[in-house]
Amino acid sequence: MIIIMEPHITKDSPEFQSLMKYLERFPHLKIKVMEHKGVTRNLLEIHLIGEDYMVSSEEIESLQGVEKAIRVTAKYRLIGKHGILGDLDFEYKGIQFNQDSFHIFAGLCAVDTYENVEKTFKALRDNNVCCARMGAYKPRTSPYDFQGHRKQCLPWLFELAGKYEIKIIVMEVLAPHHIDEIREALELTGNPCGVILQTGTRNAQNFELLKAVGKQQDFPILYKRGYGLALEESLNAAEYIASEGNTKIIFCLRGVRTHLGDPHRSLTDFAHVPVIKRLTRLPVCVDPSHPIGTRMKSSDGIRDIYHVTAQGVIAGANAVLVEFHPEPEKALCDGPQAIPLTELPLYLDYVYKVRETYLELKKMVNQNK
Ligand code: PEP
Ligand code: MN
């Protein structure tokens, strides 16, 4: 059961104290209190873990300060919507994230040269985009492939972000100590930008890493679905992050591995965007670059990456994570799928048009109810 307190109730309120006293009569239940500072409201939730069938939700709801009591069936209790719960919305660096917001994280797969990062940030700024993606730690299939410039590049990367008014960089971490390295580099450079920590598809069930990103409150997290995992397994894995205290999570779809996906790298799973928005309280991101793996065009002259971006956005995605490069043929990682940077304005126009269409369709359908 999840007990939601009225918005004005805090842990210091007498109503909260008396509820805790009331719950003492169920000593076999584990009680977990979760506080979430949202944009539209703060949430104080009390989670009863264990056999709670003898707890009466009617009785709980009659107690002072309680808004509602919900029985939950899904294991991902914190991130789950359970039919009625509102978004786990959050604000970071002045930017709001929820199931209605829309953002584009565009940039390099891997930070390579100072010049390429500068060109990318400049293009983003000139096109009014203030979020980027930049990989410093790269999980590569072969140990002999470029592993990223790692912590060495962080100070100049963050300084450049500040120079070009980039507010947030999405950056993958492969191990818990990378979080400290990012924090230290941000402090060293005077926090010129923010970072969203990405956990990659290869680490989708690396529970110790998920717990480490969930334990800290400095950075939100972009969790990527495992490419070989059922959706339910990835939702439970994302719950590991929330269960450690950090609920500022974006759930990212990036395709699943199956030979049915050939000739793309993976089969796009963007049909799950509405499913995740229904099942969870998290904003949903789509990554069109990694499932496609090529910047080839179809017979209509449109790149496959554009087509699948549209599929994700028209399905209601709240963010797009996409790879660009000033000179794709020279990229040290994922060059074949990088869109040339000169095409950024065209891609943005394309995406915004699809997003507008989605909003119009949403209005049309809801007016028709
Ligand atoms: C990436 O975003 O650069 C990446 C490696 O993605 P994924 O974990 O989805 O393969
Ligand atoms: Mn990549």
Q: What topology does this entry show?
A:
Elements: E1 2-5, H1 14-23, E2 30-37, E3 42-49, H2 57-61, E4 66-70, E5 90-92, E6 95-97, E7 103-107, H3 114-126, E8 131-133, H4 154-163, E9 168-172, H5 176-188, E10 194-199, H6 207-215, E11 221-224, H7 231-243, E12 249-253, H8 273-279, E13 284-286, H9 289-292, H10 304-314, E14 319-325, E15 339-340, H11 344-367
Parallel strand pairs: 7-8, 7-14, 8-9, 9-10, 10-11, 11-12, 12-13, 13-14, 14-15
Antiparallel strand pairs: 1-3, 1-4, 2-3, 5-6
Helix pairs in contact: 3-4, 6-7, 10-11
The structure holds phosphoenolpyruvate and manganese (II) ion.
Phosphoenolpyruvate binds at residues 109, 135, 139, 172, 200-202, 224, 254, 287, 290.
Bound molecules: phosphoenolpyruvate, manganese (II) ion
- What fraction of the residues are assigned to beta strands by DSSP? 15-25%
Low-confidence stretches: none
| Largest beta sheet: strand ordering | 7-8-9-10-11-12-13-14
Distance between the terminal alpha carbons, to the nearest Å? 32 Å
Structural class: alpha/beta
The arrangement of helices and strands along the chain is: EHEEHEEEEHEHEHEHEHEHEHHEEH
Task: Compute the number of helices.
Answer: 11
